[in-house]
Write a structure and sequence with these properties.
181 residues, 72% helix, DGCR6 protein, Gonadal
Length: 181
């Protein structure tokens, strides 16, 4: 009969664990409510083209594209120096023609730089959009409430705020676990 009833120490430890878990849940709920109050109201959540940040600190190749793009300043300086050298070697009566040709060349380079920058910007935006979709899909599959694939700016803002709440709760939980350790 002893093994079916009266396991006092075991029941006491289980009850204590349930109590700690309930306290933790109440504390987290209270912190969540405080964080929600600190957020802007839904009426102020506009979709000003915001893109929500990463779920974690994962490596992404798209951010490096910004630093590895061609340097328009360096390209223009090189062209300027080449033009200056050509002007110094040019006969005075040909100088107006040379300058006109150089002006057309400079305008063509500037146009090419603008076009390449626009293409780079479009590529980065597409990659960011895909990253957002991947994150939404991952969080939806993980069962995180409020996450699904959407491009609606208000829904994206809501998801960004949900992620921020989750991040803050994780930080607070980690801090409280360190305090109890």
């Amino acid at each position: 009969m002893e093994r079916f009833g009266g396991g006092g120490a075991y029941e006491s430890a289980a009850a204590e664990q349930v109590s700690r878990q309930q306290e933790r849940h109440y504390r987290l709920l209270s912190e969540l409510q405080a964080l929600v109050k600190a957020l802007p109201s839904l009426g102020h959540w506009g979709g000003g083209g915001e893109v929500w940040g990463g779920v974690g600190d994962d490596d992404t190749g798209w951010c490096c594209a910004l630093t590895h793009s061609l340097s328009p300043t360096g390209l223009k300086q090189e062209l300027f120096h080449r033009h200056k050298e050509a002007q110094q070697c040019c006969r005075p009566h040909n100088l107006p023609l040379l300058r006109a040709a150089q002006q057309r060349e400079m305008e063509a380079v500037e146009q090419r730089i603008r076009q390449e920058q626009r293409m780079m910007d479009e590529k980065i935006v597409l990659e960011l959009d895909q990253k957002v979709i991947d994150q939404q899909s991952t969080l939806e599959k993980a069962g995180v409430s409020g996450f699904y694939i959407t491009t609606n700016p208000q829904e994206l803002t809501l998801q960004m705020n949900l992620l921020e709440l989750i991040r803050k709760l994780q930080q607070k939980e980690a801090e409280s676990e360190k305090a109890f350790s």
